[in-house]
């Protein structure tokens, strides 16, 4: 069952999955797809053609402009913005008002389980990797690897995070080739291996 506040606007042609909650003044445009068991907060905008996976949480006043693709289990914090225009202008060189056909939209994509902190801006085209974390207020202008923790303006990697969302600690006790580094989740004990600047679970 879809539950939405009376003030929410879900346009004809939008698809919203079972169990999803759409809160006050949110706007889901025609052609957008929102998966099952999501929470769409107050004042959220989801553009036409945007794709949202299952069990995502999109917090108040986030702006998800098309053609964004968000995979399952993603957290999008309050006031987050996904842009979609590399060369924004209100008018064409001749002074005429730009219309939809006068520009090519480019999108942000977000991998499974990633989290994007409050008021972060993701400048398309860019991909946020699976289980990555973007710190509050960051401005992301380049791709973020899986499990990476990025912060700042522009965003830079400052560490790794596990699937629990906790920052990983280097595990000096593990026996791995000297070219690899191992990391440990302090919450779950899960180990991860870093190879050539990328991270994966040790049991994968």
Task: Kindly summarize this structure in a few lines.
The chain is an all-beta fold and 204 residues long. A hairpin with a 4-residue loop joins strand 21 and strand 22 (156-160).
Main pleated sheet: 9 strands, mixed
Count of extended strands = 26
Please mark out the parts with pLDDT under 50 across 5 or more consecutive residues, or reply none: none
CATH third-level topology of the largest domain: UDP N-Acetylglucosamine Acyltransferase, domain 1
How many helices? The count is 0
Helix content: under 10%
What labels would you give this structure?
single chain; about 200 residues; mainly beta; UDP N-Acetylglucosamine Acyltransferase, domain 1; 2 domains; nine-stranded mixed β-sheet; seven-stranded parallel β-sheet; globular
Describe the structure.
With 204 residues, the protein is mostly beta strands. It folds into two domains: 1-161, UDP N-Acetylglucosamine Acyltransferase, domain 1; 162-204, no CATH class. The protein is 0% helix and 32% strand. The chain has a nine-stranded mixed sheet with strand order 1-4-7-10-13-16-19-21-22, with no helix packed on it. A seven-stranded parallel sheet has the order 2-5-8-11-14-17-20, with no helix packed on it. The chain has a six-stranded parallel sheet with strand order 3-6-9-12-15-18, with no helix packed on it. It is globular, with a radius of gyration of 19 Å.
């Amino acid at each position: 069952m879809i539950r939405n506040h009376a003030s929410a606007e879900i346009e004809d042609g939008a698809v919203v999955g079972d169990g999803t909650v759409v809160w006050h003044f949110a706007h889901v445009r025609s052609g957008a797809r929102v998966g099952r068991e999501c929470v769409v907060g107050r004042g959220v905008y989801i553009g036409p053609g945007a794709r949202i996976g299952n069990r995502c949480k999109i917090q108040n006043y986030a702006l998800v402009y098309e053609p964004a693709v968000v995979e399952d289990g993603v957290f999008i914090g309050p006031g987050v913005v996904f842009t979609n225009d590399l060369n924004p202008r209100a008018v064409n060189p001749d002074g005429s008002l730009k219309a939809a056909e006068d520009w090519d939209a480019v999108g942000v994509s977000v991998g499974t389980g990633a989290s994007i902190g409050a008021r972060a801006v993701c400048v398309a085209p860019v991909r946020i990797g699976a289980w990555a974390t973007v710190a509050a207020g960051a401005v992301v202008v380049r791709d973020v690897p899986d499990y990476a923790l990025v912060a700042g303006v522009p965003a830079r990697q400052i560490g790794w995070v596990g699937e629990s969302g906790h920052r990983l600690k280097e595990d000096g006790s593990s026996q791995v080739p000297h070219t690899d580094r191992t990391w440990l989740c302090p919450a779950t004990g899960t180990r991860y291996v870093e190879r050539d600047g990328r991270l994966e679970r040790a049991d994968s």
